[in-house]
Design a protein that fits this description.
289 residues; alpha/beta; binds zinc ion
Length: 289
């Protein structure tokens, strides 16, 4: 406990974050980041004797969150575009100068390419969330390939640019699928560490409070721009996150900021302790995404 507290203080000093709540958040980020490294199927973690481990960017395909130095987070919106709600959200994001990431459904892109084009034009990242939202974990390679390729093509057609990220529907994907999709499409696989369960439509206040409670530096926040309550929750959610000092970037920008896992021996001890105390969340088991 004291080792963890000591290291957290050192990390806080290094990142110059002004808000005391973010100090606590830093410690939690280690937990989520270590949980990511411990995920089965990822490349083996470098041996402890390695003094300069490879940056997270080079060693990982899958991200639940990103280890960053600074109060950066990525807001992500899934399952759109929605003809009514996505333009409302884009207006709000523009008013706050926030860049977000949209994990779009290919079918919806084909129906409303102009909304996706607008989002891209306004600086948001457009990413692949399959053609029709099936469960990749239970499908043949050919079917998954078709889902990914058709959506990749639809995004290219709408925005002029191919996506570089995939979020599998429901977070459901096998280790083998992650690997070949990464090899064939060059995609990183993006999950999340903050889930307000907005698809259950619990009301805007609950959505906002869950996001505020769970978000840490480096967080990837999941929500859906197809539910009215989610869009209603966003003005106060953005205000509160801004008040806490968080800065909003796209998922690719967040990954580009990834800093190496520290070789600091005390930190490793703290991480291992934390990982035992707090097992990895399992978004793949969530009905969300
Ligand atoms: Zn989804």
């Amino acid at each position: 406990m004291s080792q963890s507290a000591t290291y957290t203080r050192q990390f806080f000093t290094f990142t110059h974050m002004p808000d005391y709540r973010l100090l606590l958040a830093c410690g939690a980020t280690f937990i989520s980041t270590f949980a990511l490294r411990a995920e089965p199927g990822l490349p083996p973690v470098q041996a402890p004797v390695e003094k300069t481990p490879a940056p997270a960017r080079e060693s990982a395909i899958t991200f639940n969150s990103v280890h960053v130095n600074g109060p950066y987070i990525a807001m992500t919106f899934d399952d759109g575009p929605s003809a009514v709600l996505t333009p409302k959200l884009l207006d709000l994001l523009a008013a706050h100068h926030i860049k977000a990431t949209f994990f779009v459904i290919g079918e919806n892109v084909a129906e409303h390419p102009e909304i996706v084009a607008r989002a891209a034009r306004e600086g948001h990242e457009i990413a692949n969330h399959s053609w029709s939202h099936p469960n990749f974990g239970k499908m043949s390679q050919e079917s998954v390939r078709s889902q990914v390729q058709r959506t990749d093509d639809a995004i290219k057609s709408a925005t002029g640019k191919r996506p570089t990220l995939l979020r599998p529907p429901y977070g459901s994907i096998t280790e083998r699928e992650k690997r070949w999709i990464h090899d064939e499409f060059g995609y990183d696989i993006i999950l999340w560490d903050v889930d307000p369960l907005d698809w259950k439509r619990p009301g805007p206040a609950v959505v906002r409070n869950r996001i505020l409670k769970e978000t840490r530096p480096g967080s990837i926040v999941l929500s859906h721009d197809i539910h009215p309550g989610t869009i209603e929750a966003m003005p106060s959610t953005f205000n509160e996150l801004e008040a806490k000092g968080f800065k909003f970037v796209t998922v690719s920008e967040l990954i580009d900021m990834a800093t190496p896992e520290t070789p600091h021996p005390k930190a490793q001890t703290a991480e291992k302790t934390a990982a035992k105390a707090a097992p990895s969340p399992k978004p793949a088991a969530s009905p969300n995404g």
